[in-house]
Amino acid sequence: MIHKPTTITRPVSLALCLWLALLLLPLHTSLAKLEVPSFFGDHMVLQREAPIKLWGKGDNGTTITVRLENQNAQTTVKNGHWQLELPPMKAGGPYPMKISDGTTTLTFSDVQVGEVILLAGQSNARWQISRTADAPARIAMARAGSGTIRQFCHDYRAASQPQFDVLNGKWIANDPQQVGLFSLLGYYYAQALQRNNPNVPIGIIEVAVGGTRVKSWFTPRMLAEHPSAHEVLVRYQEAIPAERQKYDNLLKQYNASAEAAKAAGKPTPAKPSAIKYGPLDENHPQRPGGYYNGRVAPFRGLSARAVIWYQGESDAAVNLPPSDREHYAEQLEAMISAWRQDWDNDSLPFMVVQLPSFQSTSFNYVPIRAAQAEAVEALKNAGLVVTLDTGNPDDIHPYGKQVVAERLADMTQGIITGSRWEQQSPNLIKADRQGRVVLLEFSCPGDSVLRNASASVELLLEMIRGKQQQALPLSGFELVDAEGHAHPVSAQLLGSNKVRLWSEEVSEPVRVNYLQADNVLSTISLYNSEGYPVGPFSVDLTR
User: Fold this and answer.
1) Can the peptide bond before residue 94 be classed as cis, meaning omega within 30 degrees of 0?
2) Fewer Cβ within 10 Å of end Cβ, the chain: N or C?
3) Residue 9 confidence (pLDDT) above 60
4) Alpha-carbon torsion, ordered 193, 97, 163, 104, to 10 deg
5) CB 181 within 8 A of CB 172
6) In sequence order, which residues have a C-beta less than 8 Å from that of residue 70 and are 6 or more positions away?
7) Residue pair 230/224 in contact by the 8 Å Cβ criterion
């Protein structure tokens, strides 16, 4: 006789049900977690007199409530994300801010409303106070400064896609232990801007990365649609397999040398830069657009007064293909337009710092300076800050950034007040050849007039303050003959906005040059009465 197995049904215990519910609970709550980017945090600065945009993540259908001072706003989470706006506020603070989904409340303290500036580019934009030669003195100066100057700092990150947040981001606010992290240029700039706007908090969002070329800052749409930018991305992706093999070989060699050093009781050698950042891939620091995705994209849409762009040194390297420099102007112009598109703000002001004086056989600044000027001229709401009378011939990272900061702050003040700000220095508007004589005509902003001066800060300040000065010679000009030979010239100021040039060695000049060298500290001579230098130019006189 065969017995069939008996199925015994037992009631599931209440304890087991509760255990299963608790086991599944984290899966649900992880979806419901309220999250905001790290730049919405303690000590943050929000842009005054503009809609205050905030965003984050949450559980679908959840109501998000934001309260800042006496302002309130609500929205609903859709597709895991939410975004809302608070009405514009005047400068002020400190305020508390609360963001709640009804279950979780995020509370932020010491929130300020003032001026928000994005500081972008490469190492001269980022260069920290702590890395300067007289760091202790500068840190002491910064500690004694305004507690309403803030900087948002975050770690380097390159990515193949735009990120929701930056890496390890935090606001610093004159903390004695952290003030050395401030950008030297950013801090000088904030101090200068605050002198014209007393009691207005200044927030610098620093997004620069040393050694980067302009291609690191292309947006995804630009890489897909702009011809030369797309070509850069294709070349990079095609190079990945061969570069990966090269990396593997170098890593193998390094590991062998490290093992040999260990066996011999010697220190482990430092990793060469070729393997320091890992193999070439879609998230490598050299990927076109990589640093935009990781360092800039998280801020898209944030209300800001302007962007400072201080970059171009790496694109001036002489070991790059000439075609790369030839595309710099169009790529910078397209990049600025692409950032504005991502910010949904076609008039977002950009202040471009033209490269200062520097001398090295490894770099050629002249064509990049011309490209910077060309890009700015092609755009609305963009201004060029001429800095050839600053810099250090022997150091690509000059510490003397006060003059640059002052000029940037003056330009920003024009943006704030709504006055014409795009042109700061005199611009050449006409070059007329009359036999061996060339007459140059300039447009001078406002009521300023041309003056002959020098790169001496003391003399510039005296001139700006109206002190009578001994006439200085006009230098830095060249006239080029039909054979392409450049000749020194005699130069004379005429009236308020003209310069007369001639050379006994050139009967019929075909081109006029001004400051066509990397280091022009000893030859720059033409300013306006407000202390802004005329930028470099090279003009064909036969057209």
Assistant:
1) yes
2) N
3) no
4) 170
5) yes
6) none
7) yes
Residue 468 lies in a domain: yes
Q: Which residues are 433's β-sheet partners?
A: 438
Q: Is residue 91 within 8 Å of 199, Cβ to Cβ?
A: yes
For the whole model, what pTM was predicted? 0.91
> Are the beta carbons of 117 and 203 closer than 8 angstroms?
yes
Q: How many other β-carbons are positioned within 10 Å of the β-carbon of residue 458? A: 8
Residue type, 7: T
Number of Cα atoms under 13 Å in the Cβ half of residue 218: 27
Q: Tokens standing for 466?
A: 């109206």
201, two tokens:
């908090």
Tokens for 19, please give them.
Answer: 């255990």
> What angle is formed at CA 174 by the lines to CA 172 and CA 180, rounded to 5 degrees?
80
Residue 461 included in any domain: yes
How distant, in Å, are the alpha carbons of 54, 80, 216, 287, 298 from that of 293? 19, 20, 9, 10, 8
| Packing angle of the helix pair 227-263, 328-343 (nearest 10 deg) | 100
Does residue 211 sit in helix, strand or coil? coil
419 and 497 Cβ atoms separated by less than 8 Å: no
Asked whether 61 and 79 are in contact (CB, 8 A), the reply is no
* 163, 157 Cβ separation under 8 angstroms: yes
Domain count, the chain: 1
In the β-sheet with 427-434, what is the strand arrangement from edge to edge? 427-434, 437-443, 498-502, 490-494
> In this structure, what are the phi and psi dihedrals at residue 153, rounded to the nearest 5 degrees?
-110, 145
Alpha helices in 307-426 (DSSP H): 322-326, 328-343, 365-377, 402-417
Q: How many whole angstroms from its chain centre is CA 384?
A: 14
Q: Which residues have CB under 8 Å from 453's CB, separation 6+? A: 459, 460, 463, 469, 472, 525, 526, 527, 531
Digit-coded pLDDT (tens) for 52-110: 999 999 999 999 999 999 999 999 999 999 999 999 999 999 999 999 999 999 999 99
DSSP helix/strand/coil, 459: helix
Measured over the CA atoms of residue 158, residue 162, residue 164 and residue 169, the dihedral's sign is positive
Q: Is residue 127 part of a domain?
A: no
CA 373 – CA 352 distance, rounded (Å): 9
> How many other CB atoms are there within 10 angstroms of residue 373's CB atom?
19
pLDDT tens-digit readout, 340-358: 999 999 999 999 999 999 9
Measured CA angle at 225 (ends 223, 229), to 5 deg = 40
Residue 224 belongs to what H/E stretch? helix 220-225
- What contacts 538, CB < 8 A, 6 or more positions away? 370, 511, 512, 513, 514, 516
- Residue 495 within any structural domain of the chain: yes
Domain extent for 452: 427-540
pLDDT band at 446 (very low <50, low <70, confident <90, very high): confident
**Plot region of 61 (φ>0 → left; ψ -120 to 50 → alpha; else → beta):** left
